[in-house]
Design goal:
Layout lengths: L2 E9 L5 E8 L4 E5 L6 H16 L7 H9 L8 H22 L3 H5 L7 E9 L2 H14 L3 E6 L29 E4 L1 H19 L4 E5 L6 H11 L6 E3 L8 H9 L4 E3 L6 H9 L5 E2 L9 H12 L4 E2 L9 H13 L6 E2 L6 H6 E2 L2 E4 L2 E4 L8 E2 L1 H4 L11 E4 L4 E2 L2
Parallel strand pairs: 4-5, 4-12, 5-7, 6-17, 7-8, 8-9, 9-10, 10-11
Antiparallel strand pairs: 1-2, 2-3, 4-15, 13-16, 14-15, 17-18
Helix pairs in contact: 1-3, 2-3, 5-6, 7-8, 9-10
Length: 405
């Protein structure tokens, strides 16, 4: 089954997405998500100028060989741009294989390991009271696990709670430049335990709670945070420190029993190897889009399972419904799946472009059994939402020092 054509679409139904569509000689097509937030057009250029010309005429069934052809064959192997492009191609090929086999992709992996996918949502706010109100709403909607993020008092927002309740891409105006935020570790450390104290006092311990630090602490600061949060029994704290120096997580692990999650920026198994085999983390957060596709992600899951590490794929709103549905199949299969980040059911604009169906029941996400991923893309609707350049924010300490966002 030869590849006849590959199309790359960039649209902005609320935010920018890069979608790849591979079409075979019998007109079966598959979809992949190549979105790299804030650097979308770099991935588009890599796809159109370097990958697409190499794949026309290749056998779409040879997913493993094509992955290695694109990875090893480039010599300059990893990195966010190239891996997002490879990941989209890999996803689209798995979608095609599922359609040709008349099976959902999870069946090609060996079938289901569970009846539904456990998810966690987001409860954000500019005050503790607002966060707790939103947490109550999430619980009523059926969530059994929720991430809490709150603005630090006397600041203009922090991670997950942009100024004026706007998303960062709404703050960039007609001349888009990265919006800037201010950060104080001292203010954060003095404040954030109170958020979880009040959450537990109001909602008890049956609801699972987690928190994203977004790599803003040093290892010893993160160790202290983990100790401060131990009484509130979090599902995990995510990205307490940067992952470039993996031994930072060794320091945290030695000082707290609060579970740790990391890896949303991992591109390969090699990025995660040291943390997993030393059991310095409990959850690995690599997404199918940013981890190179389903082919390497299932290998990562098998490796992690040897060390009691569970999969918790990144599910931010800058990953399209194509990625969401790929995660659904991966999560249904992976024996060591833990939890999936899920930001909701999308806007009317998003759902006009991407057609998919998921349903939340008692904390589990379900989907229909359709061949392939079970998601479609409306090319005509996408034309109504042209690309608009935008950036992720940057972060500075109160004295102006550039910090991790």
């Amino acid at each position: 089954m030869r590849i006849k054509d590959i199309k790359v679409f960039v649209c902005r139904p609320g935010r920018n997405f890069v979608t790849v569509k591979i079409i075979t000689e019998n007109d079966t097509y598959g979809l992949g998500d190549a979105t790299l937030n804030g650097r979308e057009m770099a991935v588009v250029a890599y796809l159109e100028q370097h990958i697409v010309p190499c794949l026309i005429g290749k056998d779409a069934h040879q997913i493993e060989d094509i992955w290695h052809y694109l990875y090893k064959g480039a010599y300059w192997q990893n990195g966010a741009v190239s891996i997002a492009a490879i990941g989209a191609i890999d996803m689209a090929l798995w979608d095609i294989k599922g359609k040709l086999a008349h099976m959902p992709v999870y069946q090609l992996l060996g079938g289901k390991s569970r009846k539904g996918v456990r998810v966690y949502g987001h409860a954000n706010g500019e005050t503790i009271e607002e966060v707790l109100k939103n947490l109550g709403t999430m619980i009523k909607k059926g969530y059994k696990a929720v991430r809490l993020q709150c603005t630090i008092p006397n600041t203009k927002g922090t991670y997950g709670t942009m100024e004026g309740k706007k998303n960062y891409y709404e703050l960039q105006g007609n001349r888009p430049l990265p919006p800037e935020q201010k950060w104080s570790t001292t203010k954060y450390m003095n404040f954030i335990p109170e958020l979880f104290k009040q959450a537990r006092e109001k909602f008890g311990y049956e609801i699972e709670l987690c928190h994203d630090v977004h790599s803003r602490l040093t290892p010893i600061e993160a160790s202290r945070l983990g100790k401060l949060l131990e009484p509130y029994k979090l599902l995990f704290i995510e990205d307490p420190v940067t992952t470039e120096n993996a031994e930072g997580y060794k320091i945290i692990r030695e000082h707290t029993n609060t579970p740790l999650a990391a890896g949303e920026k991992f591109n390969t198994l090699w990025d995660a190897k040291e943390m997993i085999q030393n059991q310095w983390i409990d959850y690995v957060r690599t997404a199918v889009t940013h981890g190179g596709g389903l082919t390497p992600l299932k290998k990562l899951a098998d490796f992690a399972s040897l060390y009691h590490v569970r999969m918790a794929p990144h599910g931010a709103p800058d990953l399209s419904p194509v990625c969401l549905m790929a995660h659904m199949h991966f999560n249904l299969w992976a024996p060591n799946f833990g939890v999936q980040e899920f930001i909701g059911f999308g806007t009317p604009e998003l759902n006009e472009v991407f057609h998919y169906k998921v349903e939340l029941k008692e904390g589990l996400l379900y989907m229909d059994d359709k061949p392939g991923w079970g998601v479609d893309f409306d090319e005509e609707a996408a034309k109504k939402y042209p690309y608009k350049r935008s950036y992720l924010p940057i972060n500075r300490l109160e004295d102006g020092t550039l910090w991790n966002w």
